[in-house]
Structure formats: structure tokens, C-alpha cells
Predict the structure.
Amino acid sequence: MAAMIEEGIRLGLTSMCFTEHVDYGYVADGLEFVTDLSAYKAELERYRALYSDSMELLFGIELGLTPSLAEMLSACVKNWKFDFVIGSSHTVHGADPYYPSFYEGRREEDCYREYFQTVRENLEAFSDIDVYGHLDYVVRYGPSRNAFYSYETYRDEIDDALEALIDHGVGLELNTAGYKYGLGAPNPHPDILRRYRQLGGEIVTVGSDGHAPEHLAYDFHRVRDLLLSCGFRYYTVFRNRKPEFIKL
């Protein structure tokens, strides 16, 4: 955490939000992918005191959404006073699109469609989140990644996902890690951001999925022009789960 804060200061940031992962029920290498929230909050408070003169530190979380876990997710959000809550599709009906096994014996297109369909399914079960994270995350890991991927190909599924976000008052995350992964675009693709705006969506936050200091604020210099080109005039920062709209 200290290394991330120091890098943020070096980059000229004045505010940062940590969003550690909580993916209930997900086990990898024998370990559940769930942050120790008590330890996380204590560490954040320690650094808040140490860096109070140079950096605002916000308390966030990224929840892996699955309908069967709605009660646990709801309890997590109610029991902790987060500034910001991201919800993400990290699994698809129990399978992880990060791994090649998700795609084996299936058409890549069918896998992608199933992924997008989980957005509404997840939100119908639990929607107490502020934004949906990296909406087209699946294209980072598909067999051909984004070589044959476009908004138009999955228009019906993506529009349904975006309408679900708007119906539930949930915003959209612009995640610049798509550039880091060599996709040539953020997650989600600008065509999806543009369509979200056309449908009336207004809440868009900016994150870099920075799991290491060198990825903090990755390619943020692209963000302003990109959002303006998609029809946005503001981006959003959450404090105490309340949105603040900041002019681009």
C-alpha cells in the first residue's frame, strides 16, 4: 500500500481509492479469494494518518458478483462503511473466463455472450454497488481475445447489460487496463461507453486496475479525450457511497 501511495504522489495524484477483492466462494490454489477486511481497513487508516497532508485515501472494495451469494454480498456492504463499491463478473455460472478451460469445446462467441448475460442476472439478485467493473473483461482472456470482438457483434447482450445498469442506478467503470493488456482500448470498449451514454447513463468512474505501482493510473492521459468523444462531460468520484460529478 505504501508503494502505491508513493507512486500516486509521484504522479501528482491527490486522491486514491483502494478496491481490494472479495470473491466469496472462489478458491484458487487452495485459498479463498477474499480480503481480510479488518486488516485492510486498519492498514488503510494507518496510511491515512501517515499521508494526511499529501493524499486522500478512500476505502473501496471490488465484489465478485454471483446471484447465489447475494446475501453475503449484501451483508458485506452493510457491515463496512465503504466509500466506493465496484461489482464485477469474475465468474460465469461458476466458471472463470481467465482460464482456457472456460472456452474448451465451445465457440468463443457463445462464451462471450454468456459472459455478458451474467450482468443482468447478477444485478437482479444484488445491485447495491456503485459501478460495474470492466464490463467486457472476458475479452482479455478469450482464445482470440478481441480480434473478432465488437460491440455490434454482441449488441443485444451488451444493450441488455447497459439497460440493467441504468435500471438499477449503477454506473460504469472505465478501466484503462485494457491498454496494458494490449487490447488497444480500455474495458469496456469506447463503443460500449458511447452506447451507455446514448441510453442515458451518466455515472462513469475511472480506474486502472493497478495491481502494482507501475500500473497505477495507467494511460490516464487518454481518458479525458476518450470520455468527451463518447458524449460525457463529467467523470465521477464516490465518497461515502455518494457520487461527485467532476467536469472533464
Observations:
- The longest strand covers residues 15-28.
- The chain is about 35% helix and 20% strand.
- Residues 108-125 form the longest helix (18 residues).
- The two ends are 28 Å apart (CA to CA).
